[in-house]
Amino acid sequence: VEENIGNALVPRQKDVERQMMNDPISKIVMQHNDELEDLDAEERDMLISVAFTHPVLRDPKPSVWIPSDEIGVSDDEVRRTLELSRDVAIDNRGAFFNKKLRVEVNKPPPDMSEFALVMAEL
Questions:
Q1: CA pair distance 79, 115, nearest whole angstrom
Q2: N or C: which end of the chain has fewer CB within 10 A?
Q3: What is the model's pTM?
Q4: What phi and psi, each to the nearest 5 degrees, are found at residue 34?
Q5: What angle do CA 5, 9, 11 make, to 5 degrees?
């Protein structure tokens, strides 16, 4: 069901959440705490300590996330990339190719954390 706001049709929050729960990546993201009240005291203290730091200085470096494969090409790529530069975060855990050679995920990306999700809201 959609609501009419101005000239745009906007889906209701419940409909959006229902659609997101059918998407595996969205389901993983939605399982993480992203509200300040949801964090424990230690996580809140860490968040407060960097809250007013410039984003360039506090944001984690992005990572490269490649799917693992049965013949080890991705393992080799991770190893070779890390040998070339420790400044590139790369991982192949949590993503894999299924039998139809489509990428599936079974855990969050390596650079995702509840702390990062809250920081993104600042």
A1: 27
A2: N
A3: 0.49
A4: -130, 15
A5: 105
End-to-end CA, the chain: 31
**Confidence at residue 103, expressed as pLDDT on a 0 to 100 scale:** 93
- Sign of the C-alpha dihedral, residues 94, 97, 60, 44? negative
Q: What is the CA radius of gyration of the chain?
A: 19
Strand residues in 36-116 grouped as ranges (E): 63-65, 89-91, 95-97, 103-105
How many Å apart are CA 24 and CA 6, to the nearest integer?
Answer: 32
Cα separation of 77 and 17, whole Å? 36
The residue-averaged pLDDT of 96-121 equals 78
